[in-house]
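Internal tracking record. Fields below are filled automatically when a chain is submitted to the structure queue. Please do not edit lines marked as system-generated. If the sequence contains nonstandard residues, flag them in the REMARKS field before resubmitting.
Queue: standard
Priority: normal
Entity type: single polypeptide chain
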Amino acid sequence: MKYSLMIGRFQPLHEGHIKLVQTVLDEGRKVCVLLRDTGKNKKNPYTLAERTAMFRKAFPIEDIMIIAMPGLDIEEVVYGRQVGWGIRELRLDSKTEDISATKIREELK
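SYSTEM-GENERATED OUTPUT FOLLOWS
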């Protein structure tokens, strides 16, 4: 089974993230979300368990796999030539792309 991989902090999972994942699901693809373990701090107020629960609430389906990587904070994705997969940027409408998790966290304070 092939998946589209999305890597992120999702601090918190918001409507922009949900729309991004749903766009890929609507294409008939499965999604694998790799949750970065950033630790809990001012910039990252939610635990891995809390963020996993956010995804399960938003996507209670089998077409999305969540991999929480304890102790692993991904900084970059590196690949060699002809690896058999590509990197694709999805562009959403400007209203959705203006959603900011940073602003959401500030509003929660």
